[in-house]
Structure formats: structure tokens, C-alpha cells
Amino acid sequence: MINGSSPAPDAALFNFGKRRMRATMRGAIAAFVLALAVPIAGVVHQYGFGTWVFAVIWFLVLGAVGAAMAWAGWADRHAYLAFDATGVWLHKQTAHAVIPWASLEAAGLFWCPQGEGSGKRLVSLELCPAGGVDERDPALSPLIVHDEPNLPGVADRRYRIGIPAFALRVYGPKLIDAARSGAGPLWFGEHERSSGYLRVQDLFS
Fold it and tell me: Are residues 39 and 139 in the same domain?
């Protein structure tokens, strides 16, 4: 891992944070509008005391939801995943790191269907370090998974970067092509896994 650096100018950079912020801000605005709806109706229709108690609770709950959504989107607005000649770059509010291609012995993609009959996929980037995973690194340790892939050359303990569904919809083949191109001869291909292999905590978010 290399700290305190940034991707090359020609890196394939996928800005998850800005996309997520747009979606969360829309949700936050909707929550704020709904939070105000009942109190405003109370003023217009001159509700009684009991209804006003409900209106205040309604406003506080939905207002808190809106504020939480707005903060979550804003705080991680600079999050990105990038690929260049050096390696795989990850940047989010709690971590900044690069996993060099030179440190890997294999890289590839796992996927599973997103719900039965949906036609959509959940995808994760699987990175196998030649010297083993680094459990002491605070940026990389959350990426560590331990399972048996039953694929030659793919380690049981490796790094997994789950691609959020919204990012796959937006970037799709471009992201996968960038990973494949960067990995070069390290690429072990794309392999289907059983539904549920990708946990919420594995997602890059």
C-alpha cells in the first residue's frame, strides 16, 4: 500500500461519492418536505393539541432522517475507486490507499444475481496479495475476506471490493474493463458465485 499519493492523471477514475451524494440529497430533500407537511397542514386546518403532538414528533423524526441522509452524502462526496498503472486506488471518508498491481498474484471478478429473475448482478473485485493480506493496515483490513473460491491461483484470504449496485448501473462495463486492463496477466476472469456471497459490509461505500 502507498499512502499520501493520488492516481495518475490518466487513471480510470470512478467517483462513487458524487453519484451517491446526488441520490442521498434528493432523498434528504424529500424527507424535509414530508417533515414540514404535517405541521403546515396543522397551521392551515388548525389542528387540536393531540394532532400537534403528532406533528412535532413527525417533524423531528423525518427531519432527523433527512439530516442524516444529507450528512452521509456530503461527508463521503469525494469517495472514488480508480485504476492506473500503479494499482487499485480507494478513497473514502475513512480510508485512502492503493493496492499495487506488483503486490498481487491474482485479480478478478466474482458476481451473483441480484434477486431472482431480475437480470441484474452484484459484483465484487477480488484481489489476492502475493505476500498475504495485511490485517494491521486500517485502510485494507476491512476488505479482507476468508472463503474458499475453489479456483486455482486464487487465495482463500484476499481483499474484496464490492461494487455498489448504483455504481454498476452507472459505470458498468467501463469499470470492469478498467480493472481487467489494469490487472493484465493477473486477471483470472469473471466467475459466478452463489447468491448472498457478497455481504453489505463488503460494499465500497
Answer: no
